[in-house]
Request: fold
Amino acid sequence: MAQSYSAAELYEWIENGASHIYLDVRNEEDHSRFAVEGPHNIEMRNIPYFDFIEAPEQASSHLDPESSVRVICAKEGSAQFVAEVLESLGFIDVSWLEKGIISWGNLLIPKRIPSPDNYQLWQFNRPGKASCSYGLIHADEMMVFDPSRNIGFYSDFATQRDLTITHVFDTHLQADYISGGPNLAKISQAEYIVHEGDFSGSDIEFRPIVDGERIQFNNSSGPDILCTHSPGHTPGSTTFVIDERFMISGDTVFIVSVGRPDLGRKVVEWAKELYRTLKTRICTLPENLIVLPGHYTDWDLESTDDYLILNDFGTVKRMNEDIYEIDDEDQFVEYIIENMREQPEVYDEIRKVNAGFIDPDEDEQDIMDLGKNECAASHMVS
Amino acid sequence: MTQQTYDDELDCSGMNCPLPVLKTKMKIDEMTKGAVLLVSTTDPGSCKDMPAWASRVGHKIVDSGEVDGRFLFYVQKGE
Reply:
């Protein structure tokens, strides 16, 4: 019987550069829409499971029976089936992904960000989405920023460390993934803190951010959070500056590029807003702040040697000179329009879920939530 | 979806991948060329997988659609 493996093991193999062959047995369309990717290139093959039903010897003829094969499918049944077919054909090291590609899509990797001794800052990387959420811990309290839908992860993380989640922030109304914010706040009896620019009219209960306010832990010591309204990507986008050292920049500042302002389909208006934000609210922040973004697109450019997605703001500005050096509003709008591309159709639906207007069942949310983000204004720096 | 005639039928309700395609293959192997098998499934994954499998092996989906939460495929056996 072929063994199974978890999504967390899969990530570890990719990070450690393990020499496995990854065999995705979903149909070609689903594979091309969303596949497993990580910090290093991997040897990925796509041979649909039904080829192993029809002609197993032929389907496996391009795979080396001596190699280690890690099979991936949508749910797990087909991966297990193919793993067993391969074993019966003499393959010596084959295993299959438990709970399928959705478990990969929901996986969160916790990594500690170096910080002063009196508090802890964690980056929760979601490789399936190329997105990041954050945890800030002081004494027995934890604040969470931009949590994804897998809220059990955050509450387990807190429980295992005897922490109480006291504040849950969203930098903005997400369009590319379903936020865990409202539900995490509810089960933790924490405050859900967002800017009303994105949430007015919503049924979701929230504490509205006041531009320039400083939010503290309930025990009122420890690092404080300076809330800086930074509209552009969305009207309510907010950047959180922690302890004058870190900026949780959501989808406003990325390590490569900035957040695209066209998702609300008011591209000129929002691009102008983003230009003003960058000039008057972001570029005025100190260059030694460490940028902690909501997304990334390229591990090689955006991660540290320790697989953290971060960099200091000075370096970020230099890496994105083509954006930050634009000194004219119209020219900036032009740059944005030139780099515009289609947004996935599902973004409209995800926004409605995050604003509390619709509440699809769990399976449907799983499907909506799968797939990489499309949030950056440009794909590559020039 | 129009009402089609068929020669045999297969109910794969409640089954997940890979069973709907696996059972369909086994059933259609017993049928003669040109005969039509009506397959019903409840697994949304089969909506893409059934046509993708059929086109790879030379069968034809002459019609398909969703009726009362069930996905129906009329599969005509090819070469």
